[in-house]
């Protein structure tokens, strides 16, 4: 396919600058986003098995719920029933809520003992997985605009630039696509190898990246989009609404749970109920938000589909289940959620999104490396200040975000032994590690910080399974080890990351010591990574 040279250059320039402007923020979003595919596993790993109270028999849920509502009337405002093994049967928030990152949430867990008596315990919520999700949605940018975090809007703009970079990249790659798509020419030069890797990742996962870029933009600016569409729809509501009831219900009138579950089964026979969130049980607008699971279809939430039902009359207001009656716009919006979250295909779908998320982070990192390599060739004698700054930003932001997350994970179980707010500690650890790494890149230079940073990340990753070993050998410490397949998997993934970063750090060191002297990645042999003499390059 032939395209005029001037058109190719235009799209290449567009691709380069949109990619650079958006890449570093999106690196954080993609890396953290890949981890959010296993938020449930992270929560389970970060809390001891004793954190959850024993499950009850299905027939005991009604009795347990009524006892909770009598003993703790506040629970009628919002109470959750959980049916999965390994989870307390009933929980409700004493402080905070399940929405967003909160540093001081407190949740009551309740069950019945062998004598049928109510047992309720108040616990702090470990927000480690929410920290990862917060970084995924905001890239760690602090502050709020209106009712949402400022970082959400910044990533929305970055995703728009990212979409332009995707399209322009494909256009200027078209003339050589068939010849170079599967070529990884490692024998020619490092720049050629990184270019081939960058192109292969970008083109092979193009549908995934288009979905992510589009959905992030929609999530960030949905209020503006709805406002614009409202001008077209006028007074006609875009989304299905339920008329507000004039009846004030009382919890004593609440039907048996068996009846509610039967109504759900009739509406969604191919789904299983994961949990039920009751709200406003003593008010005019009571609701039951029912989380449903079917791994064989596209689910519209992070891990489940949803169904909203009036818990006293079983009237369904909206749902996202396949074949449901949620309306055109609700169906479109919920499909965006499902495609972004990867909530389909069960564990296979989650692992696929996990891998593609990591490859997306690599895509942005290699894009910056390619720009720096190209500038190195254009500036034979000395690197420009812009090249040096971008190299430091690339290393500092990318490795700083990974090191911050790894530090929070590595410290999690040890922090639980201290009488402090563990969620505040997570935030301090992340931001302190991030800014120390970023500062080190500017003080000591990109190559030295890259080598040391990756080795520190590797050690932090190795410390995660080592903590489990310490817990097994020295139970007196109060630590706990991985206790099932899910928690063991978290530690195996951490160890895998550790091996990968250690190998990459050695390769980076080898390249730095043998690189061209005019490269931003060059490190003199007399300035090995064991020395921390500031680099003024």
From TrEMBL:
Pfam families linked to this entry: PepSY_TM
UniProt keyword terms in alphabetical order: Membrane, Transmembrane, Transmembrane helix
Record has Aminoacyl-tRNA synthetase as a keyword: no
Membrane-spanning parts: 20-42, 152-178, 199-221, 351-372, 393-412, 424-444, 456-476, 482-504
UniProt xrefs under PANTHER family: IRON-REGULATED INNER MEMBRANE PROTEIN, IRON-REGULATED INNER MEMBRANE PROTEIN-RELATED
The protein's name: PepSY domain-containing protein
Organism: Pseudoalteromonas citrea
């Amino acid at each position: 396919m032939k395209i005029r040279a001037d058109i190719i250059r235009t799209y290449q320039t567009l691709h380069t600058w949109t990619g650079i402007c958006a890449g570093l923020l999106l690196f954080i979003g993609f890396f953290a986003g890949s981890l959010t595919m296993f938020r449930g596993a992270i929560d389970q790993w970060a809390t001891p098995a004793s954190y959850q109270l024993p499950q009850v028999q299905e027939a005991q849920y009604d009795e347990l719920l009524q006892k909770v509502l009598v003993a703790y009337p506040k629970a009628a405002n919002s109470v959750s029933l959980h049916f999965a093994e390994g989870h307390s049967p009933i929980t409700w928030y004493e402080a905070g809520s399940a929405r967003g990152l909160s540093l001081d949430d407190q949740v009551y867990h309740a069950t019945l003992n062998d004598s049928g008596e109510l047992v309720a315990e108040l616990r702090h919520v470990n927000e480690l997985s929410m920290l990862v999700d917060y970084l995924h949605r905001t890239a760690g940018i602090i502050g709020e605009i209106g009712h949402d975090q400022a970082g959400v809007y910044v990533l929305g703009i970055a995703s728009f630039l990212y979409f332009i970079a995707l399209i322009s990249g494909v256009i200027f790659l078209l003339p050589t696509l068939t010849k170079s798509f599967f070529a990884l020419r490692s024998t020619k030069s490092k720049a050629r190898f990184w270019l081939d890797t960058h192109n292969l990742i970008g083109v092979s996962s193009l549908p995934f990246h288009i979905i992510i870029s589009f959905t992030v933009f929609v999530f960030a600016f949905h209020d503006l989009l709805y406002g614009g569409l409202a001008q077209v729809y006028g007074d006609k509501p875009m989304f299905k609404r339920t008329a507000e009831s004039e009846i004030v219900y009382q919890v004593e009138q609440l039907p048996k749970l068996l009846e509610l579950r039967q109504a759900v089964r009739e509406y969604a026979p191919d789904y299983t109920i994961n949990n039920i969130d009751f709200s406003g049980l003593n008010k005019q607008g009571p609701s039951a938000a029912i989380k449903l699971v079917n791994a064989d279809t596209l689910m519209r939430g992070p891990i489940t589909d949803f169904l909203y039902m009036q818990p006293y009359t079983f009237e369904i207001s909206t749902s996202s289940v396949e074949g449901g009656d949620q309306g055109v716009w609700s169906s479109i919006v919920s499909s965006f959620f499902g495609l972004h979250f990867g909530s389909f295909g069960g564990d296979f779908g989650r692992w696929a999104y996990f891998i593609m998320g990591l490859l997306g982070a690599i895509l942005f990192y290699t894009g910056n490396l390619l720009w720096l390599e190209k500038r190195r060739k254009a500036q034979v004698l000395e690197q420009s200040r812009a090249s040096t700054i971008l190299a430091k930003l690339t290393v500092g932001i990318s490795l700083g975000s990974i090191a911050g997350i790894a530090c929070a994970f590595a410290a999690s179980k040890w922090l639980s032994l201290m009488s402090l707010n563990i969620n505040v500690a997570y935030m301090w650890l992340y931001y302190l590690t991030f800014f120390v790494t970023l500062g080190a890149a500017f003080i000591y230079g990109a190559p030295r910080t890259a080598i040391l940073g990756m080795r520190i990340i590797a050690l932090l990753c190795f410390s995660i399974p080592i903590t489990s070993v310490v817990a097994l050998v020295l139970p007196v410490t109060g630590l706990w080890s991985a206790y099932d397949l899910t928690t063991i998997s978290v530690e195996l993934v951490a160890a895998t990351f550790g091996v990968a970063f250690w190998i990459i750090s050695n390769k980076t060191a080898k390249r730095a010591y043998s690189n061209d002297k005019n490269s931003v990645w060059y490190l003199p042999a007399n300035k090995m990574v064991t020395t921390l003499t500031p680099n003024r390059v």
